[in-house]
Amino acid sequence: MPRQPIPANGLKKLLTAVDCWYRRHGRNLPWRIGPADRDAGRAPDPYLVWLSEVMLQQTTIPHATPYFEAFRKRWPTVQNLASASWEDVSAAWAGLGYYTRARNLHTCAKVVAEQGGFPQDAASLRALPGIGPYTAAAIASIAFDERIAPVDGNIERVVSRLHAIGSDGTEAGWRASKRVISACAQDMADALPNSQRAGDLAQALMDLGATICTPRNPNCLICPLSEFCEARAQGDPDRYPVKAEKKATPTRHGSAFVLGRGGQVLLIRRPPSGLLGGMMMPPTSGWSEAKPDDPLSEAPGGFAWDHVGEVRHVFTHFALKLAVYRAEAGSRVKIEGEWLTHEDALAALPTVGRKAVALGLGSMKGKR
Ligand code: SF4
């Protein structure tokens, strides 16, 4: 795992090159205060930095941006979000995935509002609900210019290439490699001169990874790091970082029951903890690794269920295959849950539920 230390004067030159590049080519993002505005005295809003960081975990910028804009418009401050009902927050989050994050977001907003605002250092931020080491470092660095290095996937790739930090491809090897990458990123933050901001460095490295030092075919010719980059000097930057091989994703099976009634559809709210905790869903069976012998064994009773197809959804640790059944209820039927119009139901559902209900309602027009 070679790590070529960059001499102090070289590191200073590197940081200047990154800063100049960021000023000219940094991305314009709705939660970001660009360097020119920072120079003019505009400070980042820690609430918006936190919101964007939570939304961007496991999600792309194009997918997260409309959600970010909707949250900012509806709940412009952390106090507003803290006062919102869980039903409203979960419905607004539907489609962003990883629903524990929405639950933690809401809980964290209440704690922060109670405390009168966000703490301004990574160690204190880390104590808030749902804020891990990366998010704490990102908020501290971007919102408060603490000299701490957040290491996301983009920064990980840039720094691993800059220093040619490989691994043996095992889990243990990749964990060790990540520790070295984090230490190298922190060296850069520690070496910042007073004239440069830690938040700008973090966001510049994120942008470099997203736009130039891409996973495949990095554009070394226009990279501000090229004269310092060990992977480029070796001639094969694509080979870094050397991550552990991914294990095959197991599959679980279950059934979803889409019950209609005169232009409405039945949804239930799942229990607050566990996967999709607190989210609306159509009634479903439990999910198991073995395909159930009788997929209707847990169907709400008294209805004539038709099998309409299957949807597939990939969670972090497993893929789910749901057999989808559809039935129509009479107007007087009594059953636990909420009857929503098709439009409201689709808007309130997390992605997997939306796929199942859309299929059940026959509104997917052949696309799944
Ligand atoms: S020179 Fe190439 S490999 Fe090195 S950091 Fe820049 S884009 Fe990435």
Radius of gyration: 24 Å
- Helix coverage percent: 40-55%
Query: What's the count of strands?
Result: 6
Q: Give the cofactors and ligands.
A: iron/sulfur cluster
Number of alpha- plus pi-helical segments: 15
Work out the strand percent. Answer: 5-15%
> How many structural domains?
2
Q: Would you identify the regions where 5 or more consecutive residues have pLDDT less than 50?
A: 363-368
Largest sheet: 6 strands, mixed
Mean pLDDT: 93
How does CATH name the architecture of the largest domain?
Orthogonal Bundle
Structural class, by secondary structure, is: alpha+beta
Termini Cα gap: 44 Å
Determine and state the CATH class of the largest domain.
Answer: Mainly Alpha
H and E string: HHHHHHHHHHHHHEEEEEEHH
Shape: globular
CATH topology of the largest domain: Endonuclease III, domain 1
| CATH level-four homologous superfamily name of the largest domain | Hypothetical protein, domain 2
